[in-house]
Structures are given as C-alpha cells and as structure tokens.
Amino acid sequence: MEKTLILNKEQIDQKLERMVHQLHEVCFREEEIVICGIAGNGSIISNYIAQKLTEISDIKPILASIKLDKRNPIESDCTLNISDEVYKGKTVLVVDDVSNSGKTLMYGIKHFLNQPIKTLKTLVLVDRSHNRYPVRVDFSGLTISTTLKEHIEVSLDDEDKGVYLT
To answer: Any idea what the CATH number is for the domain that residue 53 is in?
Structure first.
C-alpha cells in the first residue's frame, strides 16, 4: 500500500503548537481545563497539549483518558479514568488524532453528559470533514478533503512521526 506524506514531524509540531495557542485564547480565564484524550494517539496529543499549555499559561490541565473501541464504539464499553466530580462545572477538551465521521468523538463525549460542565470543546490533528454525527471540531491542525476509501494514518513515534494518506 502506497503512503503519501501529508504532514512531517515539524509540521505536526507546528500545528499542535498553534492549537495550544488557540486553546489558550479561548480559555484564558479558566483556572483548570480537563484535557481528555481518546486512548492511543488522542492521549499522546492530549499530553502534549497539556504540557505546552502549562508552558504558556497559568491554566492547570487535568489529564484524563477515554478508552473505547473506535471501530465499534456502540458495542463496546467506553470508560473514562476520572470521576464525574472531577470535571463537574469545568471546561472539557476531548482530543483525538483524526476525525472521520465524528463517531468516535460522539461516543467519547457521552461521559461528559453525566454532570453539568461549563463548556465542551474538541481538538483533532486532522479533520476529514465526513461528518455523519452532530459533533463539530473546534480546533483542528489540518482539514483535508479525502474520499471515503482513502485512509489517514497518524504516527506519533519520534522515528517516523508523520501524517500519511493511504
């Protein structure tokens, strides 16, 4: 299978850095933000976002992780590693690597409907805009038009860090 490089390591870092600044511009009055990565690349990106946010602001990030089966979220358990009380009344940011149809984000945010929250935002590195679910991406590194047959692969390993179209 042939892979086409869409974003290299430096471009990924630039996109993430820009999104951290955008997040700070929107949430500069917040004392704490719950940054919740969808297990896998979403968690890696959320850790990066939290680290960079503390470097540029006084906002305290609370890291969390959502575990779900991305291929079949309706049939599997979706778990959140923090209690409802932790995010009650706070701004929540749900993070993933790629948004295809919005399905993963949709099932990922369902936990945050258990308690009243201040605001819910979403952040993805790549937004394919094939929305079939009523979830919009608030912060995206790259919005790209693809066919439904094409696939976006994100590698966040330092050795082959990149976003590829296959």
So the answer is: 3.40.50.2020
